[in-house]
Specification:
Number of helices: 10
Strand order of the largest sheet: 5-6-7-3-8-9
Distance between the termini: 32 Å
CATH superfamily of the largest domain: P-loop containing nucleotide triphosphate hydrolases
Largest sheet: 6 strands, mixed
Helix content: 25-40%
Number of domains: 2
Mean pLDDT: 87
Shape: globular
Length: 321
Amino acid sequence: MSYIEVSDLRKDFIVKKKREKGKLLREKDTVHALKDVSFSVDKGELVGYIGPNGAGKSTTVKILSGILTPDGGEVSVGGLVPWKERREHVKNIGVVFGQRSQLWWDVPIVDSYNLLKDIYRIPKGDYESRLKELAGILQLEELLRTPLRLLSLGQRMRAELCGSLLHRPELLFLDEPTIGLDAVSKLALRDFLKWENNEYGTTIMLTTHDMEDIAALCSRVMVLGHGQKLFDGRLSDLLENFDKVRNVHVKFDVPNPELKLPEGVECSKTEDGLLITYMPEKLPTAGLLSILQEAGKISELTLQPENTDHLIAAMYKELDL
C-alpha cells in the first residue's frame, strides 16, 4: 500500500460576489477547488505538484496536512485520515509554507525550537542531536540566538525548514519554499532537500512555480489545472510534448552561404549572422547541423533551447489553464 492514498478528492469554496447597486444581499458563487483528484505516493518519493495559480495545489496540501476537511473523497496518509486523526497525524508530518511562518517573530529562533520540542514531546537527547545536525547542514549555528525578524529571507527559510524537521517527520510538505530567494539560497535549499530525502527517506511533496526546483529535485511530477489532475509522470515526458521550437544562431565565414533548408524552417538575418528557427520533431538537430555544414565553413554557432519555464508556460496555454 502506498504511503499517501488520495481517491476522488473534492473541495468547494463559497465565494461572495461584490454587492450590486440596489441589492441588499451579495450573491454567492461556488468555486470547485478540487474535482475528483486521485493519486498515490510511495514512501520516500520526492514529488513535484505543479499548476498555475488557483489550480488547487495549496488546497490539496492543506487537506493532506489536516488543516482542511474535504467535501468528498477519501484520503489516507500513513494509514491515518488527516482531518479525523489530526493529533496522531501531525506527529509524522512537517509543513513549510513559503509565505507563512511557524516561528515566533521577535524571539531568538532557538527559543522557537525549544517550544517545538515541547509541543512534539521530543526527548532532550534526540532534540539536541537533531538540532546540531540540522543547524550544521543549514548553516544556522551562528543564527540560533538571533530573532527571526533580523534574518534575511533565505536565512528565515532555512530556519523554517529546521523547525519543521526537528521531530523527524516521515512526510514533508513544501508549499512555495523558494519564493523570493536568490540563486545561492535556492541552490543551498535544493542540496539540503536532496540530502534529507536520501539520508532519512523522508517523503517530500513540493509545490512551486519555480520549474528549476522541480527539474533539480523531483523524479516525478503531477500537474493540476482547474482542480483536476492533468498529468502524472516524469518531467521529461511532460516537456517532450512542448519542446517544439528551438533557435540556432549561426555565423559563416562566407557572406552569403547557400542554405538548402526544408519547408517549415524559418531563417532571418541578424547583425552578425543568421537566426534559424526549427521544430526538432520535424527536423532533428543533427539533420540541421548537417545542412549548415554543407552550406559552408561555420565560424560561430549557438543552439538556444527553450528553458523549462517557457515550456511549462506553453503547456499551461495549450491546456487553457
